[in-house]
Amino acid sequence: MSYPDRLATFHGLWDDNRATATQLAATGHISDRPPLEALEEGSRCVSCSNFVRRELSICALEGSVGTSSAAHEHAFGSFTLHHPGCIRLQVRIPLDLQATIGGSHGGYRMQDMKSRWERRIAAHQAAPPRTQRPQTSSLFSLPTELRLEIYRHILPSLDSVTEIVPLNRDSARVVTKAGQEKTGPRDLSKTNILRTCKAIHHEALDMLFATTTYQFGSTKLLYLFLRHVGSPGRSLLTSVDVYCGSREDAITFALLATCSKLRRITIRFPRPTITFPGSRIWIMDGMACLLTLSGLEDVKFGDCGANFPMYMNESKPDAAIIRRELTRPRGAAGGVRWVDGYLDV
Prior knowledge:
Blueprint: H1 3-8, H2 18-26, E1 42-44, E2 51-53, H3 69-75, H4 95-101, H5 107-126, H6 144-154, E3 161-166, E4 174-176, H7 177-181, H8 198-210, E5 213-216, H9 219-234, E6 239-243, H10 249-256, E7 264-268, H11 281-290, E8 298-301, H12 317-326, E9 337-339, E10 342-344
Parallel strand pairs: 3-5, 5-6, 6-7, 7-8
Antiparallel strand pairs: 1-2, 3-4, 9-10
Helix pairs in contact: 2-10, 9-10, 10-11
């Protein structure tokens, strides 16, 4: 099945988890059941297989259990039970502590703890939702334009084209190239304003994406960046410049298609055509995922360097096909056909 066919199996079932659905389809999956969770909202417990939201994840005990029941009870203070039957509650208790709480295996004590955690989770679920308190800071009495000017002076300045690179050679963390090349101590306090409250975070974060084109030396770097900024950052991203032609093209462009404000893209393909005879499946999927992008206003084709004299540029007929597809109205049907899993242009 081609990527569009696989993605179509998620329609109607995964509409609220589109970013997850596109990544799964790009990696060869189809939907055969309703979604269980979104990848960025949590994970499954390795013990009981129940889904654990990130804010309700159980913390592991650090160090050994205390030598008294009071210390043992205090050690469990940081636990938040996500499921009453989770076997992780069956914590091993040292022999000297078992003697103090009774029973060779401490069975009574374990049952007592389990009942306590069941009561705690029931109380948590029954608690009314928290209401957001109104802003009382004098900062919000200022006009929005003045607040944005304040953020502009506080946040780190970015060039109009900012290159993103891996933090280390094989690292999954990404940073700006200027930040990587900086010598001496780094001032990490400039982004602390993003941690003050949600209102300031949303207003200030928009400034880091609205007028900046982020440049990437590979689609792998772009994918790591998209995962790093999360759904808030992806919803604000407006412009990217990316070097394509790798195995990560499919999953990267699938996730990039969920960036609702993306308007400009510069594509650097080290080949002159969309596909070629005998193209590998990862090349076909990469192009299929790229062509799911729509609603863009500016599509350019950049140089790939001296090592690739034959690359896709403005004069190539395939470039016109890509531009036509990427600039079609958002949500409009694509104009290319797929025959037996291959692109028919």
